[in-house]
Write a structure and sequence with these properties.
Blueprint lengths: L1 H67 L5 E5 L1 H4 L4 E10 L5 E11 L2 E12 L9
Antiparallel strand pairs: 1-2, 2-3, 3-4
């Protein structure tokens, strides 16, 4: 009778330990998924901020071109603290001259973590200039 009692007690102990291991595995997997989801949402938020930054820079360059007839050549740096991201933002505004009389506003927006580039976006906008003898 004592042998059956010890066997049952041993079996119960093994079942309890198996349940603890399974529960720990499930909790560990949930924590890992939560961390991955959080990291992904931070990256997506940073990308959306970079989109807004690039769009704003393009709108600014278009407005400046409309006012002065020239495309500003500027570089903006947005610190981590200014926009509450873990990355620094940098935007370069420039114009590219094609072989045709068309000029294109070029926006390069980048996110940096220190010196390592994390993300990059490019926006461009063609500016049509009047052809010879044409008036707008």
């Amino acid at each position: 009778m004592t042998g059956n009692y010890h066997r049952r007690r041993g079996a119960i102990l093994v079942i309890v330990l198996a349940c603890i291991v399974l529960t720990a595995g499930v909790i560990g997997n949930l924590v890992r998924q939560t961390v991955l989801t959080h990291q992904q949402s931070k990256i997506e938020f940073a990308h959306s901020q970079l989109n807004v930054l690039a769009d704003d820079a393009l709108a600014y360059a278009i407005q400046k071109h409309a006012q002065s007839g020239t495309v500003p050549k500027e570089t903006w740096t947005i610190s981590r603290e200014e926009w509450d991201l873990n990355y620094e933002g940098r935007v370069e505004i420039s114009a590219t001259e094609n072989t045709t009389p068309e000029t294109t506003i070029q926006i390069q927006a980048r996110l940096f973590d220190g010196e390592e580039m994390i993300q990059q976006l490019t926006r461009s906008y063609p500016l049509t200039s009047p052809q010879n003898g044409e008036n707008n």
